[in-house]
Every structure is written in structure tokens, then in C-alpha cells.
Design a protein that fits this description.
single chain, about 500 residues, alpha/beta, FAD/NAD(P)-binding domain, 2 domains, nine-stranded mixed β-sheet, five-stranded parallel β-sheet, 14 helices, 25 strands, about 30% helix
């Protein structure tokens, strides 16, 4: 039987999403705010988010697990560049270790959320598995729903696609029974997914051809971190994990900073490494030399030279060209060449989706996020008691997810200590008129991100109205800065709400 907004099941905090960020946030909440009740609502029927959804061959991390892993749970597996099932196991193991699973409401999709200043609470409209509507309420909302659309991947229009008589696949919806042994496969794309698929599918396919409109920078790294494994053998795993995590974050920041200050030198080093790996069998200038600087778009990781090995064997090749059209038996490039295909994999990217696609209102007024400012890259101006977890585009996602969860706990503790019910970022009108507006993710040209930026809050040039995307700066901002900073306004409830039913 459906409840109503007036009889909404209430809890102190609701976390939306049971993926890597959501499970980690729940652990931080249990550790640092034990007096706060919480539940997690998850639209799917399993824990894991990305690592439960994607099933394509070779699915893996493109970051090392010493930084993609949680700061409170050491990664103990031998491979630092882990495959999807290993990461799924890690997230599920965390949930069971900390008793998180019992707090999750599976098959619950957030449709809308409405804030009431009078009751200092969010009321969430949730669609459950049988299509019925259920209502929940909370004082604080933590969005960990990721940043892409689970229902649709990015799919450009290809002339003649309907004429293709083979199998057309998008990696986000990989068929469990797809048999590509001995088949000719074309993978359209040049990002991390394409570079994962090509070497893995080439192991049993007759031939795999990666067709890219433009090249991407790639970097090869060993999947096994021998230093990390050695340190773990001679000292407690938590010590070894902390040391390697520190080393890797410093290294990531160093490389990224060099791409900002001396991009030509970094590009030259990346291309030299590719040339050494593939030799003369691939035209590196044509197929691996982008027109942009490193980290203007995300670098693609090639673990253990697997892509280069596949190219050297001849089981895989790269074609850099536009696509004229698709025909019955394959693909025709802009240059007029025909590439035979039994299977075409459209690894053309993801569609971003802000806050899971839910609608938001504050005191009955719809929130237009594009008209607001981001506060520290986690909250939105004029939207109370709601934090969005969004990791790094230039480092491991979980580094920022951990920092965000820690900061949320600081905010909740501050509110409890001083009796506040509402925390709302407020930007002075004069500053809002005079400060330069930038996209929420600044200086990143990847198409999937650019398509979404006009819909997200803007960032400025003055703290705290910025989204640094810099681990060193973020640590100072989230851990070292005062919670009460004059921009995050804390208030008490205007009127006491009626007693609400607690979640059981």
C-alpha cells in the first residue's frame, strides 16, 4: 500500500546510490556520526553501481586501486589495476564488513525531491520495483548516484545503421550470450572502453578494428604494483596502503601539473613511449597523436601493454578516419575504405545525467541548477541540506568521494552541536553579478562532459564558489577550512514539524 508525503518514512540522512561512493559514504557516516540514522535507496537490485552495471569483456579500472579504493579499507589484491569483478567484490565486501546491506532499499528509484524550510526536511518521491510510488523524508540528502544515465549510452546517428545485418552492441548493454569467437569486430571509439575492448576481444575474435575519429593520449602501466606488494609483505597492510596511496596521489598531481605548465614535453614523452611499445607497425603520429594537450581530455590507461601487444600480433588494428556510413556487411570510412564486420561495437561514450535525472524543488519552486553556483563542488547555492558526490576527472574518483563524505560528517556534527536544522550556501548578490562564471568542470574538453556542462551549476574564481578538481587543494578545503565560513548559512527550523515516522 502506498504511503503519502504526509506519512513519509523518515530518517536523518538518505544516501541515493549504492555504488562505490554510496557505500563509502555510509561507512563514513557510521564511523563519524553514529547518532544519525540513515538509509540508502538504490534503483537497481544490487550493490556496485558502475561495477555491477558494466559487463563488457575486460571491464576494469582506469585508476590504480590504491587511490580508487577507500581510505579506510586497504586494497589487498595483487593487481593494482583491477578488473570489474574484483572491484565489485571489494565494494560488496565493504558493505558486508560494515553492515551496510541491511540499510539499503533496493529497487527504489528517486523521481523527485522537495525541500520544505518549514519542516527542515526533504520529501523524496520514489518509484519502487512494482511501479508504485513510495515517499521518504530526511533532514539531509547525500546524492551518490553517479554522473551518467544508466538507461542510455551516448549513441550518435550513423547513416545506414539499419542496413547492417550483423550484431550492433553498445558496451553499456552488453549481451551475456554474445559470441565473437572467430568473428570480425569493429569497435567505434577511442576512449577507455574501446581500448579495453580491443585487446580483450582480439584474444578470440578473428580481427578487431578500432575506428576512431581522432586519437587519444594513452599511457601504459603494469597492472601489478610490485612496490606495493613488497611493502604489504613487510609491514601492516594499512601502513603499506597509506604509503602507496600517498605516493600515487603525489605522482598523479605532479603529472597533471606538468600537463598544465609544460604540455608539449609531456606529450612528447607519452608519444615516445607509445612508439617504443608498437615499433614501426603503427603510424603513431596518425593514430596516437591528439590535437589537444594531455589531460585536456582524460588519459587512457593501457595495463601491461595489452593494446600494443594486440596491435603487434596483427589481431587488432587502428583506423583513424570519419565514418561515411554503415552498410550490410560493415563500415565505410570517409576515405572510402570498407571495413568488414560481423559485430559493430559502438563504444561512443556515456550520457551524463545530473543527480540521477530527478526533479528538485525548494519550498515549491523548481531548482534550475544551471542558474546557481557550486559551493566547493559539492553543494548548490540556495539548495539546503543536499550534497552531491562527484569525484575527479584527472585522478581517482574515490579520493574526492572520501573527502566529500568526511566533510558531510563535519557539517552534520556542526549542526548537531549548535542545534541547526538547515545549511544553505548563499552567494552575495554583488559577488554573483561581478564574479566570472565558469563551467562546473573547467578546462576539460571531452565531449561527454561538454554536453552536460550547460545544465550544471557554474563555478566562480573565488573560494568557496569553486570546484578545484585538485586533491591537494581539496584536502585543505574539506579538512582544514572552517565549517562556518560565512557562505554556508546555518539556521534553525522556522516551525516545529509534526512527528515523523522513523525508518525501521
Amino acid at each position: 500500500m502506498n504511503n503519502t508525503p504526509e506519512t513519509a518514512i523518515h530518517t536523518d540522512v538518505i544516501i541515493v546510490g549504492a555504488g562505490l561512493s554510496g557505500i563509502g559514504s555510509a561507512v563514513h557516516l557510521q564511523k563519524n556520526c553514529p547518532n544519525r540514522d540513515y538509509i540508502i535507496i538504490e534503483r537497481r537490485d544490487a550493490i556496485g553501481g558502475t561495477w555491477d552495471l558494466f559487463k563488457y569483456p575486460g571491464i576494469r579500472s582506469d585508476s590504480d586501486m590504491h587511490t580508487l579504493g577507500y581510505n579506510f579499507k586497504p586494497w589487498r589484491a595483487e593487481k593494482a589495476i583491477a578488473d570489474g569483478p574484483a572491484i565489485w567484490n571489494y565494494v560488496n565486501e565493504t558493505a558486508d564488513e560494515y553492515g551496510i546491506r541491511d540499510q539499503i532499499r533496493f529497487g527504489h528509484k528517486l523521481i523527485a525531491s522537495s525541500w520544505s524550510t518549514e519542516s527542515a526536511s526533504w520529501v523524496l518521491t520514489v518509484e519502487i520495483a512494482n511501479g508504485e510510488t513510495q515517499y521518504f523524508s530526511c533532514n539531509f540528502l547525500l546524492m551518490c548516484s553517479g554522473y551518467y544515465n544508466y538507461d542510455a549510452g551516448h549513441q550518435p546517428e550513423f547513416k545506414g545503421r539499419d542496413d547492417f545485418q550483423g550484431i550492433w552492441v553498445h558496451p553499456q548493454f552488453w549481451p551475456d550470450d554474445l559470441d565473437y569467437a572467430g568473428k570480425k569486430v569493429v569497435v567505434i571509439g577511442s576512449g577507455a572502453t574501446a581500448m579495453t575492448l580491443v585487446p580483450n576481444m582480439s584474444q578470440c575474435a578473428e580481427k578487431v578494428t578500432m575506428v576512431q575519429r581522432s586519437p587519444t593520449y594513452v599511457v601504459s602501466r603494469p597492472s601489478v604494483d610490485r612496490v606495493a606488494n613488497f611493502l604489504r609483505a613487510i609491514m601492516p597492510s594499512s601502513w603499506a596502503y597509506g604509503l602507496i596511496r600517498l605516493r600515487n596521489t603525489l605522482w598523479q598531481q605532479l603529472i597533471y601539473n606538468q600537463t598544465r605548465t609544460n604540455p608539449d614535453r609531456v606529450a612528447q614523452k607519452l608519444l615516445e613511449d607509445v612508439k617504443k611499445a608498437v615499433g614501426d607497425i603503427v603510424d603513431v603520429k596518425k593514430h596516437f597523436t591528439p590535437t589537444y594537450n594531455p589531460w585536456d581530455q582524460r588519459l587512457c590507461l593501457v595495463p601491461d601493454d595489452d593494446l600494443f601487444t594486440a596491435l603487434r600480433t596483427g589481431k587488432a588494428e587502428v583506423v583513424t578516419d570519419t565514418i561515411s556510413h554503415i552498410d550490410a556487411t560493415g563500415l565505410v570510412t570517409g576515405s572510402g575504405d570498407h571495413i568488414d564486420a560481423d559485430i559493430i561495437v559502438s563504444a561512443t561514450g556515456i550520457e551524463l545525467l545530473n543527480l540521477g535525472g530527478a526533479d528538485f524543488k525548494v519550498d515549491g519552486k523548481p531548482v534550475n541548477f544551471a542558474e546557481e553556483w557550486t559551493y566547493k563542488g559539492v553543494m548548490c547555492s540556495n539548495v539546503p541540506n543536499m550534497v552531491q558526490t562527484f569525484g575527479y576527472i584527472n585522478a581517482s574518483w574515490t579520493l574526492r568521494a572520501d573527502l566529500t563524505a568526511e566533510w558531510v560528517c563535519r557539517v552534520l556534527d556542526h549542526m548537531e552541536e549548535f542545534g541547526f536544522k538547515q545549511a544553505t550556501p548563499r552567494i552575495p548578490e554583488l559577488l554573483a553579478r561581478s564574479m566570472e562564471k565558469r563551467y562546473w568542470i573547467h578546462d576539460f574538453s571531452a565531449g561527454y562532459m561538454q554536453r552536460m556542462m550547460p545544465k550544471l551549476p557554474r563555478q566562480g574564481t573565488q573560494m568557496p564558489w569553486v570546484n578545484p578538481q585538485n586533491y591537494r587543494k581539496d584536502k585543505k578545503m574539506f579538512r582544514g577550512s572552517a565549517i562556518s565560513d560565512g557562505a554556508l548559512i546555518f539556521t534553525s527550523c522556522h516551525a516545529e514539524a509534526e512527528p515523523l515516522k522513523k525508518a525501521s
